């Protein structure tokens, strides 16, 4: 018998299998699972999206990156919806003045879509996908640390500057600018 086999047998003989039914009645365990599920709702995931209809994508269809599950959900919608004629993700940038540094920076909107509306008119939109909490001005609440409030305020100020630049950019080009939150995406 090899040393690896002996080590594996000695480890597995000492470890008892985990029985999930032992935890099912445990309130602490169920509270932990509920908090974990809530955390997953807000966690950011990153990956590469592979479109079913790569000809609809304007850009490199082999390099479509999502930075959240919400973005992935919207990508899937754009890819599979027959009324979306073209779409792109972070394929262009808009200059904006960063209020925290007073420097010009580049804002890459999440999406550009060209679609057919209910009256069969062709429309073009720039879309930003954000949690509702990042679209609202932060408020000091009991239990929120000063550091958290500062970070939320900086994020809010930067987002407002980006979206102001995006609205002006879109108005000049007869495009719509939309911010989509969990409400518009159908996420609780």
Following the backbone from N to C, one meets helices and strands in this order, namely: HHHEEHEEEEEHEH
Count of structural domains: 2
Helix content bin? 25-40%
Which regions contain 5 or more consecutive residues with pLDDT less than 50? Answer: 3-27, 32-36
Strand order of the largest sheet: 3-6-7-8
Report strand %: 15-25%
CATH architecture of the largest domain: 3-Layer(aba) Sandwich
Q: What assembly state would you assign to the polypeptide chains in this entry?
A: single chain
Shape: globular
CATH fold title of the largest domain:
Trna Endonuclease, Chain: A, domain 1
Number of helical runs?
6
Describe the structure.
This protein folds into 2 domains: 3-38, no CATH class; 46-185, Trna Endonuclease, Chain: A, domain 1 (3-Layer(aba) Sandwich). The protein is an alpha+beta fold and 188 residues long. The strands form 3 sheets. A 4-stranded mixed sheet has the order 3-6-7-8. Strands 1-2 form a two-stranded antiparallel sheet. A hairpin with a 4-residue loop joins strand 4 and strand 5 (103-107). It has 6 helices and 8 strands. The model is unreliable at 3-27 and 32-36 (pLDDT under 50). The N and C termini lie far apart (55 Å).
Topology of this protein?
Layout: H1 3-14, H2 21-24, H3 27-42, E1 47-49, E2 64-66, H4 69-80, E3 84-89, E4 94-98, E5 103-107, E6 111-116, E7 122-129, H5 146-172, E8 176-180, H6 182-185
Parallel strand pairs: 7-8
Antiparallel strand pairs: 1-2, 3-6, 4-5, 6-7
């Amino acid at each position: 018998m090899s040393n690896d086999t002996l080590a594996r047998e000695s480890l597995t003989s000492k470890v008892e299998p985990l029985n999930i039914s032992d935890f099912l009645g445990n309130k602490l365990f169920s509270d932990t699972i509920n908090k974990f599920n809530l955390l997953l709702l807000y966690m950011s995931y990153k990956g590469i999206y592979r479109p079913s209809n790569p000809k609809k994508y304007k850009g490199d269809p082999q390099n479509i990156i999502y930075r959240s599950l919400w973005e992935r959900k919207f990508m899937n919608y754009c890819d599979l919806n027959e009324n979306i004629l073209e779409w792109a993700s972070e394929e262009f940038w808009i200059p904006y003045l960063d209020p925290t540094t007073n420097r010009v920076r580049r804002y890459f909107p999440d999406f550009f879509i060209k679609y057919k509306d209910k009256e069969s008119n062709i429309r073009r939109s720039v879309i930003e996908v954000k949690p509702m909490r990042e679209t609202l001005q932060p408020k000091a609440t009991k239990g929120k640390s000063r550091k958290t409030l500062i970070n939320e305020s900086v994020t809010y100020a930067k987002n407002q500057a980006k979206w102001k630049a995006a609205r002006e950019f879109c108005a000049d080009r007869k495009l719509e600018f939309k911010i989509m939150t969990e409400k518009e995406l159908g996420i609780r």
